């Protein structure tokens, strides 16, 4: 297969490295200086510094050149770049995106942007997957979701192998909601872990969330994801799958998560700009949290953890106040 991976951050680069073992792959980045540096070092030093690029992997700073003759297009930009990249890509070639979130400004998910642009033969590749582990060849399972079976099957043909399993799904809406909401919950998980670490350092546990609180947060976070996902047209079983529960557990507890790291830094007392400057990578939950909340409000879906994360990100509540707010809610049935 001839594959173009568009966007050379950590995730696009990791998947390009894996696919290059079996297919003709070109990795595109919009920044010619980044491509030149990667070409010289045969390494994506800024975004994936541990994993050398295989000789067979082609690099290009020209999108037209990268997509010429491709059988499959993989868009690896953040959500902020998805629309422009879709517009620049040839319409007849199957395409999947990797980004997880809502588009800032329009509040759209990827499939809604594609529909608006009249783009067909599209899907999303998601699931619990830290780029560093995939680049190293550590075992990982993904899910490729599309309304068109041929698109999901193209992702299987491109990436499924001994160390990378790719399942298929016909529920792109559910898969996209899972990916977007788990990032918001990972910020909350990072805040809880960060408050716990602070309490441990100070020897005062009374006000700090512990492991019980983290388990509660994940479980109620899954409930929020499911409520919103069902209201948007996703299927319940998807939220118990790789793109839902699987990615929620990974991102909200895993050391490598950038969204969780934002929460940890907020709990250490940094404000959001300082936390993002320290991170140096995209943390989609920061840009999607308010949209998740507003789309929920528009559909009459209650999302209390998301609301608390928004209050923290926008500086109206400290992490400890956000936790207290969640604990002070009225008792209710577990739905
Ligand atoms: N890193 C992971 O482990 C991982 C895993 C699964 C999914 N994702 C998702 O994949 C997407 C990309 O994440 P990442 O980790 O590769 O990001 P990153 O922070 O490592 O790199 C982002 C890259 O995108 C480029 N970029 C930014 N805006 C762009 C635009 N408008 N057009 C073209 N390129 C643009 C940047 O120059 C940079 O090369 C995100 O939505 C993320 O949630 C990441
Ligand atoms: O590092 P994060 O928080 O962007 O998460 C990366 C992936 O989405 C995990 O599946």
From TrEMBL:
<dbReference type="GO" id="GO:0051287">
    <property type="term" value="F:NAD binding"/>
</dbReference>
<dbReference type="Pfam" id="PF01210">
    <property type="entry name" value="NAD_Gly3P_dh_N"/>
</dbReference>
<keyword id="KW-0443">Lipid metabolism</keyword>
<feature type="binding site">
    <location>
        <position position="282"/>
    </location>
    <ligand>
        <name>NADPH</name>
    </ligand>
</feature>
<feature type="binding site">
    <location>
        <position position="131"/>
    </location>
    <ligand>
        <name>NAD(+)</name>
    </ligand>
</feature>
<feature type="binding site">
    <location>
        <position position="131"/>
    </location>
    <ligand>
        <name>NADPH</name>
    </ligand>
</feature>
<feature type="binding site">
    <location>
        <position position="257"/>
    </location>
    <ligand>
        <name>sn-glycerol 3-phosphate</name>
    </ligand>
</feature>
<dbReference type="InterPro" id="IPR008927">
    <property type="entry name" value="6-PGluconate_DH-like_C_sf"/>
</dbReference>
<feature type="binding site">
    <location>
        <position position="30"/>
    </location>
    <ligand>
        <name>NADPH</name>
    </ligand>
</feature>
<feature type="binding site">
    <location>
        <position position="11"/>
    </location>
    <ligand>
        <name>NADPH</name>
    </ligand>
</feature>
<feature type="active site" description="Proton acceptor">
    <location>
        <position position="182"/>
    </location>
</feature>
<dbReference type="GO" id="GO:0005975">
    <property type="term" value="P:carbohydrate metabolic process"/>
</dbReference>
<protein>
    <recommendedName>
        <fullName>Glycerol-3-phosphate dehydrogenase [NAD(P)+]</fullName>
        <ecNumber>1.1.1.94</ecNumber>
    </recommendedName>
</protein>
<dbReference type="InterPro" id="IPR036291">
    <property type="entry name" value="NAD(P)-bd_dom_sf"/>
</dbReference>
<feature type="binding site">
    <location>
        <position position="258"/>
    </location>
    <ligand>
        <name>sn-glycerol 3-phosphate</name>
    </ligand>
</feature>
<feature type="binding site">
    <location>
        <position position="47"/>
    </location>
    <ligand>
        <name>NADPH</name>
    </ligand>
</feature>
<dbReference type="GO" id="GO:0005829">
    <property type="term" value="C:cytosol"/>
</dbReference>
<feature type="binding site">
    <location>
        <position position="258"/>
    </location>
    <ligand>
        <name>NAD(+)</name>
    </ligand>
</feature>
<dbReference type="InterPro" id="IPR013328">
    <property type="entry name" value="6PGD_dom2"/>
</dbReference>
<dbReference type="InterPro" id="IPR006109">
    <property type="entry name" value="G3P_DH_NAD-dep_C"/>
</dbReference>
<dbReference type="GO" id="GO:0046168">
    <property type="term" value="P:glycerol-3-phosphate catabolic process"/>
</dbReference>
<feature type="binding site">
    <location>
        <position position="284"/>
    </location>
    <ligand>
        <name>NADPH</name>
    </ligand>
</feature>
<keyword id="KW-0560">Oxidoreductase</keyword>
<feature type="binding site">
    <location>
        <position position="127"/>
    </location>
    <ligand>
        <name>sn-glycerol 3-phosphate</name>
    </ligand>
</feature>
<keyword id="KW-0520">NAD</keyword>
<feature type="domain" description="Glycerol-3-phosphate dehydrogenase NAD-dependent N-terminal">
    <location>
        <begin position="2"/>
        <end position="150"/>
    </location>
</feature>
<dbReference type="GO" id="GO:0047952">
    <property type="term" value="F:glycerol-3-phosphate dehydrogenase [NAD(P)+] activity"/>
</dbReference>
<dbReference type="GO" id="GO:0008654">
    <property type="term" value="P:phospholipid biosynthetic process"/>
</dbReference>
<keyword id="KW-0521">NADP</keyword>
<comment type="pathway">
    <text>Membrane lipid metabolism; glycerophospholipid metabolism.</text>
</comment>
<dbReference type="InterPro" id="IPR006168">
    <property type="entry name" value="G3P_DH_NAD-dep"/>
</dbReference>
<comment type="similarity">
    <text>Belongs to the NAD-dependent glycerol-3-phosphate dehydrogenase family.</text>
</comment>
<feature type="binding site">
    <location>
        <begin position="7"/>
        <end position="12"/>
    </location>
    <ligand>
        <name>NAD(+)</name>
    </ligand>
</feature>
<dbReference type="InterPro" id="IPR011128">
    <property type="entry name" value="G3P_DH_NAD-dep_N"/>
</dbReference>
<comment type="function">
    <text>Catalyzes the reduction of the glycolytic intermediate dihydroxyacetone phosphate (DHAP) to sn-glycerol 3-phosphate (G3P), the key precursor for phospholipid synthesis.</text>
</comment>
<dbReference type="GO" id="GO:0046167">
    <property type="term" value="P:glycerol-3-phosphate biosynthetic process"/>
</dbReference>
<dbReference type="GO" id="GO:0006650">
    <property type="term" value="P:glycerophospholipid metabolic process"/>
</dbReference>
<feature type="binding site">
    <location>
        <position position="247"/>
    </location>
    <ligand>
        <name>sn-glycerol 3-phosphate</name>
    </ligand>
</feature>
<keyword id="KW-1208">Phospholipid metabolism</keyword>
<keyword id="KW-0444">Lipid biosynthesis</keyword>
<keyword id="KW-0594">Phospholipid biosynthesis</keyword>
<feature type="binding site">
    <location>
        <position position="100"/>
    </location>
    <ligand>
        <name>NADPH</name>
    </ligand>
</feature>
């Amino acid at each position: 297969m001839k594959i173009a991976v568009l966007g050379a951050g950590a995730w696009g680069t990791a998947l390009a490295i894996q696919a290059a073992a079996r297919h003709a792959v070109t990795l595109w980045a919009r920044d010619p200086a980044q491509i030149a540096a990667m070409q010289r070092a045969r390494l994506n030093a800024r975004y994936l510094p541990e994993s050398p690029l295989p000789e067979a992997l082609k690099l290009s700073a020209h999108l037209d050149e990268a997509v010429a003759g491709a059988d499959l297009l993989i868009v690896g930009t953040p959500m902020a770049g998805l629309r422009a990249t879709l517009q620049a890509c040839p319409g007849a070639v199957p395409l999947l995106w990797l980004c997880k979130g809502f588009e800032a400004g329009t509040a759209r998910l990827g499939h809604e942007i594609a529909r608006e642009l009249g783009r067909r033969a599209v899907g999303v590749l998601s699931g619990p997957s830290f780029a560093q582990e995939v680049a190293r060849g550590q075992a990982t399972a993904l899910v490729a979701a599309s309304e068109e079976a041929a698109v999901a099957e193209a992702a299987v043909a491109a990436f499924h192998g001994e160390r990378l399993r790719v399942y298929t799904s016909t529920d792109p809406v559910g898969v996209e909601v899972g990916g977007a909401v788990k990032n918001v919950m990972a910020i909350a998980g990072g805040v809880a872990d960060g408050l716990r670490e602070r309490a441990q350092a100070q020897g005062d546990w009374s006000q700090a969330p512990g492991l019980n609180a983290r388990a509660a947060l994940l479980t109620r976070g899954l409930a929020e994801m499911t409520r919103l996902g069902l209201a948007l047209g996703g299927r319940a079983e998807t939220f118990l799958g790789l793109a839902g529960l699987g990615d929620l557990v990974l991102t909200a507890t895993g050391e490598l998560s950038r969204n969780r790291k934002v929460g940890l830094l907020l709990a250490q007392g940094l404000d959001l700009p300082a936390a993002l400057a320290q991170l140096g990578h995209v943390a989609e939950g920061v840009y999607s949290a308010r949209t998740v909340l507003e789309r929920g409000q528009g559909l009459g879906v209650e999302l209390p953890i998301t609301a608390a994360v928004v209050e923290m990100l926008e500086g109206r509540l400290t992490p400890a106040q956000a936790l207290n707010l969640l604990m002070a809610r009225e008792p209710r049935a577990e739905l």
